[in-house]
User: Which sequence fits this backbone?
């Protein structure tokens, strides 16, 4: 006889109330994915350096055309509030003080992965496609490649490209802005 375990799913509102009541703190490294509170992996030095490098590159290239958010929440729907490593957001005077960015506010999300490549590829990227995020980059530190996901549908991204070594890629919303894979990895 097998026993079916019940899972308790949370809404974004309930998740925020857990922070307000002290059950979770702002220092907890967690995110809400499909109603489940997921503990995020510790950030290693290579991961942190890659995020820092991306932030510096993107600020230099895009300036005030975007708000660049590093490791901040985005509200995808009522049960998912992930914290991508980098988000390029549409500029707003309040800098999203009233509410976290939503899919229509997002030009690009970037996940930098070393120990979480499979999770990011199989869980988070499909979630981003379902939320209609127009472009996502998966920066795979181990393989030294950048996977670019575009044309979202409910079934996933229809256009996927992999960039390696000295190849150059651009952001769909800013096609004249080019970045090489070598710049992303500091080579």
Assistant:
């Amino acid at each position: 006889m097998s026993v079916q375990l019940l899972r308790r799913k949370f809404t974004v509102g309930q998740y925020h109330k857990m922070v307000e009541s002290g059950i979770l703190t702002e220092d907890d490294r967690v995110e809400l994915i499909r109603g489940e509170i997921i503990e995020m992996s510790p950030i290693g030095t290579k991961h942190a350096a890659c995020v820092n490098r991306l932030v510096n590159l993107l600020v230099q290239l895009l300036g005030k055309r975007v708000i660049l958010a590093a490791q901040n929440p985005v509200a995808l729907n009522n049960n998912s509030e992930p914290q991508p490593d980098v988000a390029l957001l549409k500029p707003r005077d309040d800098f999203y003080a009233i509410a976290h960015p939503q899919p229509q506010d997002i030009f690009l999300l970037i996940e930098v992965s070393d120990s979480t490549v499979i999770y990011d590829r199989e869980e988070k990227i499909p979630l981003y496609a379902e939320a209609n995020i127009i472009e996502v980059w998966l920066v795979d530190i181990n393989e030294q490649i950048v996977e670019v996901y575009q044309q979202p549908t409910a079934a996933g991204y229809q256009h996927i490209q992999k960039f390696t070594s000295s190849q150059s890629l651009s952001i769909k919303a800013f096609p004249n802005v080019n970045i090489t894979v070598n710049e992303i990895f500091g080579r």
Residues 42-185 form a domain with the tt1808, chain A fold (CATH 3.90.1570.10). The mean pLDDT is 93. The two ends are 56 Å apart (CA to CA).
